[in-house]
Known about the structure:
Blueprint lengths: L27 E3 L4 H10 L14 E3 L5 H4 L3 H7 L28 H9 L3 E7 L2 E8 L20 E6 L2
Antiparallel strand pairs: 1-2, 3-4, 3-5
Amino acid sequence: MVHGYSPYHWCLVSECKKTSVKTPEKLWIQVPTDLKMRNTWLKLARRDPKSLSTKTKYYFCEDHFDLENDMENYTQLKIMGSVKRIRMRPNCIPSRFDCQPGRKRTFTEKQKSGLQAKNFVTINVFIRGRLVLSAFTKPSSMVNIYSIGAEYQETPLVLTARSNL
């Protein structure tokens, strides 16, 4: 859930039928205002950038992103259940197009190696043997664990880290 944003959205991706009415639980990511990045997103969505107003706010549904890797405040969303504003990583582009025939959902091998080359680590938080949080972050990043629930207050946390170096 994201606080303070328009209640109705429809996904701009060609062939995607998601709307905030049909799927109210979905997150909605605004198409960037930077013209170069905006055009990249629109072309990936199989939309003609010249046919769409540059002044209108358009949105993609969360299905077209790898939120864990593409969203800067994903960890906060998972822990707290909501964020004030969705913050996508700089130069993030949509990469999943299951709704479009003939398109793949997963990253290409080049994209995967690019992620690994950026020295990311996966941090998992286990409480009572149950995975309650998984974060994909840079080793120098701070992972904040705000509140996971009252039932776990006296339970020790178990953290594991896996390097993609």
